Amino acid sequence: MDRPVRSLRDELHSTAKGSTAFDLGCALDRKASCCEGIGYRLQPRGSLTHAELCHCVQECASCFGQNRRVVDGVAKTCRSPAPSRVVTLINNASLPARYSAARLDSFSNFSGNGREVVQRVSTWMREFDAEKPRGLLIGGPVGVGKTYLLAAIAKNFASRGISIRFVDFFQLLLELKAGYANDKNDAGLLGEMIDVEILLIDELGKGRNSDWEASILDQLVMGRYNRNKIIVASTNYDLKPNDRVAFGTNHLDDKKPSSFDLDRFESLEQRVGARIYSRLFEISDFIELNGEDFRKRSLQEKMQNLRPPRKNS
Ligand SMILES: [Zn+2]
Ligand SMILES: [Zn+2]
């Protein structure tokens, strides 16, 4: 009774092509609250972020989760990249579970220059050109939200169908070392790090800075550099070139550092060497993030709550 009226032409056309009468549209187009229309959901699983296709896509009456449907005899793709592809990319990325909900627009440490940094990162991501890619290095003290930003960036790239790999630099060294001890060569894991489209390195420069570690870093950075591939990284070390780091205070202006943070007394250039530093500098944007250490702040808040309420005298 309530069926919409179709013209004779539509009717003949659809009969000729033998398709169903109406396109219901994909569940993705309805932006259901289950996944806000992205078609997949993320949750912590063990130490990593796990992605899976949302039930709204799996049960879509139009495409049955295939991301493809026939409209008037013509095959149509529901969404590009397919949510199932994004799911695979995220599950191959080794994203830490702690940051599964990270999003640029949910960044909340604005005690320093966070607002400005989020803006700059958004612009950098929007302007990202796979043909002429530019990397990104986020420097700053402990606890200001660098890893959070890295995870948000990783998820954004995955949603655009770009392959990503997230790695903690120190952890990578440990894994390579373990492989070494078991007589395996570095080629497998290291090769994976060199091949992936976007490599995200947390805590770049952390380690003992041995010759072996330096050679790993060299293979990693130069391997990607030679393939025109970028690195997105965070580091606790000072991003400024050596000759501009005022050692001892770590500040070009006369402000004293608010808390003692040993890493900030060394520069990234010192840690990774002039050659690697200059390559990174050449192919990346450098951004300094500053602000309060959110871990310390939340600890202080907890301590505050533990104190008994003051009596009025
Ligand atoms: Zn569908
Ligand atoms: Zn959904």
Topology order in helix (H) and strand (E) letters: HEEHEEHHEHEHHEHEHHEH
| Unreliable stretches | 12-20, 248-260
Number of strand elements: 9
Count structural domains. 2
CATH architecture of the largest domain: 3-Layer(aba) Sandwich
What is the CATH superfamily classification of the largest domain? P-loop containing nucleotide triphosphate hydrolases
Assign a percent range to the helix content: 25-40%
- According to CATH, the fold-level topology of the largest domain is Rossmann fold
**DSSP helical segment count:** 11
Tell me the span between the first and last alpha carbons: 78 Å
What best-fitting shape do the alpha-carbon axes yield?
A: globular
Please report which band the strand proportion falls in: under 5%, 5-15%, 15-25%, 25-35%, 35-45% or over 45%.
Answer: 5-15%
Highest-level CATH class of the largest domain: Alpha Beta
Q: What strand order characterises the main sheet?
A: 6-7-8-5-9
- How confident is the prediction overall: mean pLDDT? 86
Helix and strand composition category: alpha/beta
Name the ligand types: zinc ion
Which sheet architecture does the biggest sheet show? 5 strands, parallel
Rg over CA atoms, rounded to whole Å, is: 25 Å
